[in-house]
Write a structure and sequence with these properties.
single chain, 340 residues, alpha+beta, Rossmann fold, D-amino Acid Aminotransferase, Chain A, domain 1, Dna Ligase, domain 1, 4-stranded antiparallel β-sheet, 9 helices, 13 strands, 19% strand, ATP-binding, metal ion binding, ATP binding, ATP-grasp domain-containing protein, nucleotide-binding
Length: 340
């Protein structure tokens, strides 16, 4: 049985939820959409819609981000999974609109969403709070990729983006010449680049729910068959190898608990999120790589797997994050006023 109860709505029919996702149903056709170029997301987005309805919320659904613009007066809460639209920093659009309209929205305030989605600024913020991070440097299009202040091996990735977008096996490079070539490839696509010192070991992700004040669900390792155990875009989107809940040594567990507390104290409250690490089992060293807000809620993802281990099903988790989010924002929508 779960060690802590999750929130459940007392009168869900009184809450109007606007559900936004790339493959969310659009009126009048409420069924799974064609998959397109992604793997499993059409089914995933439809099942989240079904679970919101099964909880008892009054759910309106749209795949169009501009639906948020007319949510004022028509919705009590916006449940948005629109994180990968074809615009720069798409994760911020819906939260910013909802902040302007004073409608509670899933995740965190826009400024915290912006910090989390910028892998370099979040690295600086983590380091300022004393958390262990790998050294990194940003390379913007138009500038020659000069060697960083740290030695390799190097890991090259998009400064922004989700689901390891743009990460391939070429992202791991032993020499700077190789890394610079990958940087130029990103620049050719108009992307800002973050180059980090590669951290040995495996990926470990730590899913967290906002609770009282928060609840760490466990420790999950995404499987990889790539050199260095890296997670590439194809592994993230196809999820052909999946994830597994793992045990960590007591010292690492305690250190991660301290990390979560530090992140929460600085950036919380947050409805739900993951802290993504590289962890070296041989040495016990850990490096905090990034924080993901409004991350994947699939049953085979880290939140679903770790939650199930504690006895929570996905419907309970979805209901909890909605109710927690509503409570978090209940008293924070009224104090902003025009200054000029």
């Amino acid at each position: 049985m779960p060690s802590l109860p999750l929130l459940w709505p007392a009168a869900p029919q009184q809450t109007r939820v606007l559900y936004l996702a790339r493959f969310a149903p659009d009126d009048p056709i409420y069924e799974v959409k064609p998959e397109g170029m992604t793997s499993g997301y059409a089914e995933y987005h439809f099942r989240i819609y079904e679970e919101l309805k099964s909880i008892g919320y009054r759910v309106a659904s749209s795949s169009k981000p501009y639906a948020a613009l007319v949510a004022g007066g028509n919705a009590d809460f916006v449940f948005s999974l629109l994180n990968r639209m074809p615009i720069r920093n798409p994760e911020l659009l819906v939260p910013a609109i909802c902040a302007y309209l004073r409608i509670p929205v899933l995740g965190a305030p826009p400024n915290i969403r912006a910090l989390a989605e910028d892998k370099y600024l979040s690295k600086l913020a983590f380091a300022a709070r004393g958390l262990p991070v790998a050294p990194g440097r940003v390379y913007r299009p138009g500038a020659a990729p000069e060697p960083p202040e740290f030695a390799g091996p190097y890991f090259v990735k998009d400064r922004f983006g989700a689901a390891s977008e743009g990460v391939t096996e070429a992202s791991l490079q032993e020499s700077w010449d190789g890394a610079a070539a990958v940087v130029r490839d990103f620049h050719a696509a108009g992307k800002e680049v973050l180059v980090e010192r590669f951290c040995p070991g495996i990926d470990v992700t730590v899913p967290v729910l906002g609770h009282d004040p928060y609840l760490v669900l466990g420790h999950v390792a995404p499987r990889s068959d790539k050199v260095g155990g890296i997670l590439t875009a194809d592994l993230k989107t196809d999820d052909r190898l999946g994830n597994e809940v793992i045990g960590l040594d007591p010292c690492t567990v305690a250190a991660i608990e301290d990390d979560v507390r530090t992140v929460w104290d600085a950036f919380g409250p947050i409805d739900y999120f993951r802290l993504d690490y590289r962890w070296d089992p041989a040495t016990g060293r850990r490096w905090l790589i990034e924080m993901n807000i409004c991350c994947y809620l699939g049953k085979r993802g880290s939140i679903g797997l770790a939650g199930a281990r504690l006895g929570y099903d996905r419907t309970q988790i979805v209901a909890h994050v909605v109710e927690y989010s509503l409570a978090r924002q209940r008293h924070g929508q009224g104090h902003e006023r025009w200054v000029i």
